[in-house]
Amino acid sequence: MSYKILSLGDSASFPGAHPLLDKAERDGDVALVLGNRVPEALERLGKRDGYRAVVVELDMECLGVYTGESRGEEGSNMLGFARFRLGSDPASNLIELVRQPATPQAAIDAARRVFESAGLQVAVCKDVPGRILNRLIRPYYNAALRRLDEGLASAADMDITLKLGLGYPEGPIGLLERTGLDRHYDVTQTLWEAYGDPGYVPARRAQIAKQRALVEAQVQAWTERDDEIADD
To answer: What domains can you pick out in the chain, each with its CATH number?
Structure first.
């Protein structure tokens, strides 16, 4: 399956070298839109009905933001995708391929073949905010953070319990600290706003981490401004 890539802006899914990028051609049966400037990229792509599939990179948003929605019957040759990445960790080998109710199976199959040809694993999901993994794991991480606040056990004891008791390679507290509690806040806040499920409400420690990140960014901005003034 031949494919072309149109990349505009920063790509969270493919920020660096990858076989998927290496195998792209000037023209192809499938168009992949990478980066966070999807509307502009679609404008440049032009007519989309000549491709077997047009696949756009998503963050937490729905594909319907770019295609529109109508009566639960929407669907075309445009799909979305997100390569799962936990915070600051490298992107995983999982592609969550986003379809709509009436997306043709031929378009789904074409998009799947493109990703699988580059050694990626594909899971197809409905067009909902957050997709599969975030909706499954974020309440678990929130619960672990809340039990830490309640004093159920120390962070070290909670992590070792999950690792030894359930065979997890890494405990939830250490994992979130390593990959970024502030990013966990961003994801859970989006899910909370979308679904109103209490399990998604960002845990207190995630809220503090986000506030601290904002303060540090402001301090950095002040420092850079003062340096510019000093240079003048």
So the answer is: 3-128 (3.40.50.720), 134-212 (1.10.1040.10)
Which residues have CB under 8 Å from 14's CB, separation 6+?
20, 21, 34, 83, 91
Q: Which tokens in the block code for residue 92?
A: 């995983």
Q: By C-alpha distance, which of 186, 222, 194, 185 is closest to 127? A: 194
Reported residue count of the chain is 232
Report whether 48 contacts 31 (CB < 8 A). Answer: yes
| pLDDT digit string, tens, across residues 107-156 | 999 999 999 999 999 999 999 998 899 999 999 999 999 999 999 999 99
Please name the residue that has the structure tokens 């991480």: 141
User: Which two tokens mark 36?
Assistant: 């966070």
- pTM recorded for the entire structure: 0.86
Residue 147: exposed, middle, or buried by beta-carbon count in 10 A (0-12, 13-18, 19+)?
middle
Task: List all residues 6 or more positions away from 173 whose beta carbon is below 8 Å from its beta carbon.
Answer: 144, 145, 148, 155, 158, 159
H or E element in which residue 82 lies:
strand 78-83
In angstroms, the CA 79 to CA 88 distance is 26
Q: How many CA atoms lie within 13 A of 140 on its CB side?
A: 12
